[in-house]
Design goal:
With 532 residues, chain A is mainly α. Chain A contains 22 helices and no strands.
Chain lengths: 532, 532
């Protein structure tokens, strides 16, 4: 009796759809816990990382579900663009901005833009042109020009999530800031390209189309950045004014969290790039807002934001792994095994070629403007940059669903969705597995150099100490060279000096920031941070 | 051109439903930020609190939406049971368990159970019987016996969320632990009662029905508690074994968060009471798991969990406020203004009467078993307990929707939903506003007593200091009375001593906990905590 009463309680408490929500949430949370434990145990292992663990665990879980349902359907949750773009991506990108080493990021800003914008454009052109000619050879002739361009945009989106796990900010700071910074700009660039391709009218293409695309991109880039900076500054101002003398840790943390998310949602609302907006909002928050809150709030935000991002990352890979075994999709696809392998192989080849074509030339272009010998991107580093950006991830799958799966139930659509999944799985598992050993092998002599003080900067106290030391070193340093001469000699670092002066004089008094500590630029301290 | 391209990007990026999701999330997050700021500014105000602020702000926002849509519809989000039970309630209850002062809670455990279980049953009977007779007088004659019993269960659910904001754990510890502890048990009891009423077959009621209900309740209570304790212990064991010597703050925080949520979802999956489960999971986690993690993880979990709970609370009240102006519901309701006011008034009267009937007698029953003069619940405290439990909140609305709004579009259903909303709004705003002043007026002499050391215990360092002092005090204290004599003299405190011995000998060596610090019970330290 108790049991029948209970089962009737179950079904009245939640409707059928809600009951299945409970089941799928339970399964996902259990798998997440398992991923965390396995990831921790494998941390010392040079081949594995959390992305690969969760991808493989997702595959296994999908297989088990498939077997339990007698090979009929595997998906507990179908891949959902909304879930991905509204809930999972924002914490990851926000945390990246919040934890990024700002000095290094902005010192490499021009190189990052070069890779992120022109690199993505070059990669888009190569992959589009390549698939236009090569896919015909395989026997896929029914592709429209729009589909080909969409494929170019879809496979130009690198996976910044996996990059974060493979490269280490402490061990290889220059590479990390270049590859990850490129990844953020690339996300925005490829998403903008994709939606631009979808919205263009291909019946009357003229010379203006390319110009319009460029204009849209520049407009989106500048407005998104401005919005992120504005929201970040508002949060700093609110917390500085409101909490003066009377702090409430919960409210401070809540305000930071909510305003960061608000910046992303506002960007989406105004159809800007939410990724860029929340990234810059994170940077501003760590530069101003974070210094206005209590010590306990600082520790909490640092670790709580990192944890949220960590859970989202693991969830995404688990999700992609489980989604890969969605049997309906494989059945609907019209390609036989040979065509599928050929197509995936072609796309993978184009991805590698498209990235090679821009990384090596652009790195040499960038080297012309990088004067310090330490800052040069040598051939080894170029190789690592090329390799670390080959992985494709959830953005690729989300865009591919958007182009090929929504609305139409065509066989060709299902065929390209399965190919996207194959490319993502293969690149993440195979490229991802060998990346760590490759980096270690190529850069082993550098990481052992006595100059890598960054290894020591592992907790907040150390960072504070470092700042104090820098400051002392700065005060001893000379500051006699003329500004104009320096601007010509070393443009990035001079802009940085002007920015510091402006920041100290106008920004920090209004928005707070590290205790108005006077900062004297142009000193040996510049050298202590950027030696990879 | 750029704008038309952009608008086409907007509509291709998100489908229409997703675009409306973006709008509603943006509105809600903006309102949450405003609530936080206003709540902070009003903190010193004796009349206002965050619940009332967000409720009123939600009402205003609903009004603006209504005006913008030309008085056609107000809801941006319709009240959704799933959102409430799956996402908003768990963090609140978990945090309550995690932050509750365990000693005080368990010392008052028998009193809490008395209020929570028998009190809820008495209140249920009074409200059901009362509405059976009184609603006929008003002119509502078509109520089925099941509806009347459901009304009893729906309005027996007190609002533990609002209670948390009105009472202060530091200032009035005994009252806080009694009222809040009762609230948690009451949540479980009224939800169990409600689903039991829904599932009973009213065609053949016999004497066994009441017995079955009691059996179900006891079964649910014990299994839910056991599940929460089990998951909490597993989390402590995993973190103790896995992270020994090598800590990762992100993984520790993520494991605690995920396992807590897992306990809730498992309880829902096995159709137990998720609220009870996650509450006990929180208690176990703060007793064992929390002591196994790094100092940084401790600060992060304390504040991150509190922030999550805080955001959920504010969100719920905002949500209820906005939902109240849902014009469709008001139109569908068949009652005229007079009937509506009369019904709401009757229900409010029954709520007050039903609570008075059990609080005062049960408090006197409890006093018979409370030997120390400090621990007695005098008439003033009884009045506060009665008053602080009068507020009705989101659980009432969620259950009311479940009973009256799902499936049927009947006029009577809409009528009772609107009445529930009126009761919730009125009790929260009116009773909530006067609660703080009433408590201050009634208990002013107590809170000024020099014994209230608890005020000082506001941060973690102080707690550590306090424990060290207690320990020293304990070692000086006498421990000569016989165990049996003490069990008869003071049963709760003796059980507590046995538990401490068991904990030190068997539990802590396996599951971790405050550094195996030897604890000698039966000493002056017991007195330092419970003087209200």
């Amino acid at each position: 009796m108790a049991i029948s009463l209970l089962s009737s309680i179950l079904y009245s408490h939640f409707t059928m759809s809600a009951a299945s929500t409970v089941v799928s949430i339970t399964v996902f949370i259990t798998l997440l816990c398992v991923c965390l434990v396995i990831g921790h145990l494998l941390e010392e292992n040079r081949w594995a990382n959390e992305s690969i663990t969760s991808l493989l665990l997702g595959l296994c879980a999908g297989l088990v579900t498939l077997a339990l349902r007698k090979w009929k359907s595997s998906h507990i949750l179908v891949f959902d663009e909304e879930l991905f773009f509204i809930y999972l991506l924002p914490p990851i990108i926000f945390n990246a901005g919040f934890q990024v080493k700002k000095k290094r990021f902005f010192r490499n800003f021009s190189t990052i833009l070069l890779f992120g914008v022109f690199g993505t454009l070059i990669s888009f052109c190569i992959i589009s042109t390549g698939s236009f000619f090569l896919l015909k050879e395989i026997g896929i002739t029914s592709l429209k020009i729009q589909d080909v361009l969409a494929i170019g945009a879809i496979f130009s989106a690198t996976d910044s999530v996996c990059t974060l796990q493979v490269l280490n900010q402490e061990e290889t700071p220059l590479l990390y800031s270049l590859v990850f910074g490129e990844g953020v700009v690339n996300d925005a660039a490829s998403i903008v390209l994709f939606y631009a391709v979808q919205s263009l009218n291909f019946n009357n293409i003229d010379a203006l189309t390319a110009l319009k695309l460029l204009g849209t991109f520049l407009y989106l880039f500048s407005t998104s950045t401005a919005l992120g900076i504005a929201v970040g500054l508002v949060s700093a101002y609110i917390i500085k004014k409101l909490y003066f003398g009377r702090h409430s840790t919960n409210r401070e943390v809540a305000i930071m969290l909510l305003m960061a998310y608000l910046s992303y949602m506002l960007a989406e609302l105004f159809s800007l790039s939410g990724i860029l907006t929340i990234f810059f909002c994170g940077i501003i928050m760590s530069h101003y807002t974070w210094h206005n809150i209590t010590e306990r709030s600082r520790v909490t935000t640092r670790h709580a934001f990192a944890t949220m991002s960590f859970i989202s990352e693991t969830f995404i890979f688990l999700y992609v792994g489980m989604d890969a075994l969605d049997i309906d999709k494989w059945k609907r696809s019209d390609g036989n095994l040979g065509t599928t392998v050929a197509t995936s192989g072609t796309i993978l080849f184009l991805v590698m070629a498209g990235r090679a074509v821009f990384v090596f030339p652009l790195a040499n272009v960038a080297n012309c403007f990088r004067n310090e010998p330490d800052a040069k991107i040598d051939l080894r580093k170029q190789f690592v940059i090329w390799w670390a950006g080959l992985m494709r991830g959830a953005v690729t799958i989300a865009l591919s669903y958007n182009q090929f799966a929504t609305g139409s139930s065509s066989k060709q659509g299902a065929f390209f969705v399965t190919n996207s999944i194959i490319v993502v799985l293969f690149s993440t598992v195979v490229f991802g597995t060998v990346t760590k050993p490759i980096i270690q092998a190529l850069l082993s002599q550098n990481s052992k150099s006595p100059n890598s003080e960054d290894n020591a900067v592992s907790n907040l106290d150390d960072i504070h100490l470092l700042f104090l030391e820098n400051r002392r070193a700065n005060e001893d340093g000379n500051n006699t060279r003329s500004s104009l001469g320096m601007l010509l000699m070393n443009p990035t670092s001079t802009i940085h000096q002007f920015w510091r002066k402006f920041d100290d004089k106008y920004m920090r008094p209004v928005f707070g920031g590290r205790g108005f500590m006077p900062y004297v630029p142009g000193s040996p301290s510049s050298a202590t941070e950027d030696n990879v």
